[in-house]
Amino acid sequence: GEYYVTDQLYGTVRKVSLKGEVTWVTGSPMLYQATTTCLFGVGTEAYISNPTASVLDPYANALYITAQTNLLLRVDLATRNVSKVYQFGTTTRALCANNASNHTTIYVASTKTLYVVHPDGTLEDKT
Q1: What's the distance, CA 114 to chain centroid?
Q2: How many CB atoms within 10 Å of residue 49?
Q3: Which pTM does this prediction carry?
């Protein structure tokens, strides 16, 4: 078992084991000082500007993160690659997940809008 923690100040994601061991997944405090936008890439070369919410998709071994820059991001936990899933026109507010028998459906709440991210990566407006 492990937990994933997003650090809004430094734009990082860390993995914390049940033994208390902390591992960097993405980001670096040095990038925080150099940029204010999201940088896509792998591991400590990636930066997530003000991550606001995250949810784990255990079937895809991925972490979905919303950022105050109106982005929905996907972190592949095997490769630590950060990629953009979708750019919203308004601020994203929350994430939640529904784990089915063989996939996870991600829900994203934006200003007065609810989106569903399907397992194939397509986005559906549910409002």
Answers
A1: 17
A2: 19
A3: 0.75
